[in-house]
């Protein structure tokens, strides 16, 4: 049996690679170090050998101690788990060196965690969006308007019709072309991957994460929204790619029908779960096909204390 064959037999893909849980790995390494230290007290060489074996088990198997996810969820404070969390709770369009900022797989790959990743926003430092008033800009563009009560915003009928037309003509090829133009990469390098465990659609180019979406329907909605906004903003050419994607995401909460199947949409709260923790999220979902169209961490919606 070759070394590579033995390694393949030992490895558990469901707990290693992109599926590796960072908090669980940390817990196991700490336990391995503690056990090795105790063994090393009895005989120092045994401490070094045992740690090497323990580290190998963690590397190939993902865990040393069975039930690690339960241990970390039970005994690690939620704020600590958040430090390691890397599962996007919202969508983000990433950028390469030619666009503002750069993203790596760590921004979106670790399905065991939940670091907040802004939906439909470029993977820059966020500075161009921080002071950017999305709702005011969308109202200036004629995409949003106040309803009859004057208290709530809604899609302007003319814009909604244009958005629906763009959704109808948006497919994967159009989406890949949009991503390439927005981030400055070669269209041929753009790929879209559905990652079942993390529940996210991930756009990649040459190993770099461009962005993530709750679903293909969410990506279609963003691509179509950006196209429908073309010509409606006088300074659109001055907007950063990060700001353009923020506008597209800002419209998604106003969807009245699913871009995937045309069904109605519902709004509600759900409990999202990762390997080690659970948290409440606000979700926009299709009533018919259950496609997630928008997901926001519920804490982000809570008003700040005065």
Share in helix: 40-55%
The chain-level structural class is: alpha+beta
Low-confidence stretches: 86-92, 94-122
Strand line-up in the sheet with most strands: 2-1-7-6-5
Q: Indicate the mean pLDDT.
A: 78
Q: Count the helices. How many?
A: 12
Broad shape = elongated
Measured on Cα atoms, how large is the radius of gyration? 23 Å
Distance between the termini: 66 Å
The main sheet comes to:
5 strands, mixed
The number of distinct structural domains comes to 2
SSE order: HHHHHEEHHEEHHEEEHHEEEH
Number of E-type strands: 10
Portion of residues in beta strands equals 15-25%
What this model shows, in words?
With 306 residues, the chain is of the alpha+beta class. The chain folds into two domains: 74 residues; 163 residues, no CATH class. Strands 2-1-7-6-5 form a five-stranded mixed β-sheet. Helix 10 crosses helix 11. It starts with a helix and ends in a 5-residue tail after the last helix. About 12% of the residues have low confidence.
Please summarize what this structure is.
By secondary structure, the chain is of the alpha+beta class. The protein has helices at 3-10, 22-42, 44-61, 68-75, 78-84, 127-130, 134-140, 157-168, 172-183, 216-229, 241-252, 298-301, and strands at residues 92-93, 121-122, 144-146, 153-155, 190-195, 200-205, 208-213, 265-273, 278-286, 292-297.
